[in-house]
Design a protein that fits this description.
It is a single chain. By secondary structure, the protein is of the alpha/beta class. It has 3 domains: 1-88, no CATH class; 171-197 and 206-215, no CATH class; 223-386, von Willebrand factor, type A domain (Rossmann fold, 3-Layer(aba) Sandwich), CATH 3.40.50.410. Helix content is 46%, strand content 14%. The chain is built from 16 helices and 10 strands. The chain has helices spanning 11-19, 24-27, 32-45, 77-87, 90-103, 108-111, 113-118, 123-132, 138-166, 187-193, 236-249, 276-282, 291-301, 320-336, 356-364, 374-386; strands at residues 171-177, 198-199, 204-205, 212-215, 223-230, 255-262, 266-268, 308-313, 339-346, 368-372. The strands form 3 sheets. Strands 7-6-5-8-9-10 form a 6-stranded mixed beta sheet. The longest helix has 29 residues, at 138-166. The termini are far apart. InterPro entries: LolB (IPR050458), Uncharacterised_CoxE (IPR008912), VWF_A (IPR002035), vWFA_dom_sf (IPR036465). Residues 222-382 form the VWFA domain. It holds the Pfam family VWA_CoxE. This is VWFA domain-containing protein.
Length: 387
Amino acid sequence: MSPPPLAVTDPLERWRLLLGEAAQDACGALGESAAAADAALDWLYGRDSDLGARGERSVGSRDGQRFGVRTDDAVSVPDWINAVHRLFPQEVIERLETDAVERYGIAEIVTNAEVLQRIEPSPSLLRAVLQTKHLMNPEVLAMARQLVGEVVRRILEQLATQVRQAFSGTRDRRKPSRRAVAANFDFRRTVATNLHRYDPASGRLYLQTPRFNSRSKKHTETWDIILLVDQSGSMTDSVIHSAVLAACLWGLPGMRTHLIAYDTEVVDLTDDAADPVELLMKVQLGGGNDGAKAVAYAQGLVRNPQQTVLVVISDFYEEAFVAREMVRRMAQLIADGAKVLGLMALDEHAVPTYDHEVVQAMANVGAKMGAMTPGHLAAWLAEQLQA
């Protein structure tokens, strides 16, 4: 009989689960449900290489039953996944599955059909699928595609709203508007206009006349937006969000969106830009990179430099001669009138890791450098196109 879902109310049991086996004598024995949860945690975190130094036992050494299976049974990844989903709340499940993939490299999490049927879609598991899809047989790959589709759908749902807002027209603070639209609310002018209605006794400002900005007129010329994405393994998050952003930009009036992935070779993925799932399943993560070759390809796509924005998303770790050639080509594009933006990261965290010398060299020739969330990049693009 399997243990019931985790419901630990005893404070000592909670401390025992938190502190691990070393607290057994002080906190006492665990109940059936808590013991099953402890065994599931030990199956994963018992893999830490420093357990011996702390006087703790490594994985496989625990006596008794492991989350409802006999001790003489080999504990498989599906066994563990099933136990985790039975014993823990959703937020804990996602953390455990993420750690299994990212911290301990248990590739079977995303290459086993039985596990994929139970796995909770999440960004970390999407990254794992993209990194291990070459190991999957056709049946598992089809299931993994469904997982990718669900995670992409969630990201797309959120980002599409940000892109629509960004390209609905930028605010022009020089021109007031009579249209009462919340997105155009002018805080400074509203406060200034209504200062006479301030009540010192209550400390409140009562608004009688709200003020709003107008929006600038959109350009009628067609812009080329070229997203050039380094697909080396360290850029996985940026590749994911570039694919979703390209799908959001695809089909916007007055814009042609190009999506180019590169390592040591260049792959034009523009034909798949409208379908980020298909696009991501074609990406080959890992390997080296050749930014100069990628920028050279992008130059060949430029029709009108004054109506072109090149966004290069990379950590810019290149061989010195490759970096020099890449920067030289960027300088040519900028001299011709194109806008060049270098991004060291494009994801929800926007935490960059990059070659400082190369990034500085790009900035010196006029490229705008930064690390952005996809929503901020969409807003920046809108400002450039509507300036």
